[in-house]
Amino acid sequence: MTLTRKALSGQDNLEKVLGQLESGNSLDTFKLKINQIKRDLSQLDASNKPMPELINSTNLLRSNEFLTKSSEKKTELLNAYESYFRELEGVLKKIQTGLGTLKSTKRKIRKTKKKTVKRKKTRTRKKSKKKKPSKGRR
Question: What is the pTM of this model?
Fold first, then answer.
């Protein structure tokens, strides 16, 4: 009976960890945000080409504006990657905790099984020892 309870508690722990991982859709959100920022950066790069019909000073102003926007987007991208990385670390910690719990539960189950087998062996030995003298008496 205790073996079943321990096995169930191990399964419950695994389900908790998996539930936490499944409910954390934030990784997908971060991925979408990162991809959007990358698209924005590529659009900025395409619009940065100098126009020959404009004078040099105007092209320099446009280039400066591009560099400012590009810098802002790159900072935003770095922040998104940082958030994504933190979220991944959190998921990894949850997995490690879940694995540790499962390993300890597995050890407890093995110990319980060994004890149960030993008890059964000693019971069968005691019964067989009791039966042997009764056979000799006949």
Answer: 0.52
Domain boundaries, the chain: 2-137
CB atoms within 10 A of CB 113: 11
Tokens of 67: 């560099």
DSSP code, position 55: -
**Torsion angle, CA of 56/57/63/69, rounded to 10 degrees?**
-160
What is the phi/psi pair of residue 61, to 5°? Answer: -65, -45
Task: Please name the amino acid found at residue 23.
Answer: S
Element (H, E) at 20: helix 2-23
Q: Which amino acid is at 96?
A: Q
Q: pLDDT tens digits, residue range 79-103?
A: 999 999 999 999 999 999 999 999 9
Write down the residue that tokens 């990657």 correspond to: 81
